[in-house]
Amino acid sequence: MISTQRQFFELPDDETYLNAAYMTPTPMVVAEAGEKGIRQKMNPTSIGKEAFFSTPDEVRSLFSQLINNPEPNRIALFPSVSYGMANVVKNIKPGYGNEVLIVEDQFPSAVFPWHQPDSHHNVKTIPLPDLYKNRGERLTDSIIDAIRDQTAAVCIGTVLWTDGTRYHLKRIAEKCQQHGTLLILDGTQSIGALKFDLQEIKPDALICAGYKWLMGPYGMTVGYFGPAFDEGNPIEENWINRQNSKDFTRLTQYEEKYGPNAQRYNSGQYSNFIHIAMLRKSLELILEWKVDIIQGYCDYLTAELFDTITKSKSYWIEKDPNYRSSHIVGIHLLKTELKEKLERTFADKNIHVSMRSDCVRVSPHLYNTKKDMYQFMDVILGLDS
């Protein structure tokens, strides 16, 4: 098993950072890539026209390796998940039906785009099951049972962002395929820390922000768009998402045709020489470490936490390992008065976690150690009664 990789990060020794789901700290080599990009921009004579395309193409290739996508041209680059979702929503034709399924407490960026005044979509929210046996399995079953012929799309995360609940994506995907329903995934809270195989799940779109588990900069997002979106109209018209955009001598010929596959969905200025260099380096680092190893290390860090919390009368945690994540652990509070006490104690002890919905969200990474987990557990168990 890999040992801690804390040497790649500049984290204060007196801070316990268990909040990667909020944002990961920037690895030093990723920061250096950004600094190199800044220096390059200080002298534009070093920026040739190939710089607008070469590094973005490398990012498409690296992200494709991460998710097992054989077609890098299906990867678009833009600033946010909501930007990618807006392109998805705009290009779902009425023939798919008018019902869209989302999940209660889903992250807003995958919810708001569906709620447009002129939208023909009827958004149906799948409620979260009670905190009892087989909660994760029951949530998957509720989604599957709700899919029908008039369901245009299922839009969910690859995990539930508030507590790391895992869906059985394969079963959901198969039900979508049976009814001609599009599967739209927000991969922000798992891609880079939990294995995802595009060829197995076959989503129609997968959008993933870069600043969390991809360890990249804020303001860079990658998105896979499948064949269902090949002839769509992007939300933004710019020069770089057109055919022949690499030929700067022809830009004033105003090419109407878009680039191949998902290249029509690129945002303007996606070549950002600072951010794109950082994202390339962070993806290289993840591929070097390997996602299975990252998740395995998180398994190692959280094993005792799972064993301890399952016996508690003050907290609830998903017991089924098939429906929970080790990189995001959601500890639900069964006593509301615990929230304020926990927040105050975490702040006093410089322990960084997130309070999301009714739970404490703990999200470790390779820079953490067992000592970090024990410090967190001391607080949790100290208030358990």
UniProtKB/TrEMBL annotation:
<protein>
    <submittedName>
        <fullName>Aminotransferase class V-fold PLP-dependent enzyme</fullName>
    </submittedName>
</protein>
<dbReference type="InterPro" id="IPR015421">
    <property type="entry name" value="PyrdxlP-dep_Trfase_major"/>
</dbReference>
<dbReference type="InterPro" id="IPR015424">
    <property type="entry name" value="PyrdxlP-dep_Trfase"/>
</dbReference>
<feature type="domain" description="Aminotransferase class V">
    <location>
        <begin position="52"/>
        <end position="372"/>
    </location>
</feature>
<keyword id="KW-0808">Transferase</keyword>
<dbReference type="GO" id="GO:0008483">
    <property type="term" value="F:transaminase activity"/>
</dbReference>
<keyword id="KW-0663">Pyridoxal phosphate</keyword>
<dbReference type="InterPro" id="IPR015422">
    <property type="entry name" value="PyrdxlP-dep_Trfase_small"/>
</dbReference>
<keyword id="KW-0032">Aminotransferase</keyword>
<dbReference type="InterPro" id="IPR000192">
    <property type="entry name" value="Aminotrans_V_dom"/>
</dbReference>
<dbReference type="Pfam" id="PF00266">
    <property type="entry name" value="Aminotran_5"/>
</dbReference>
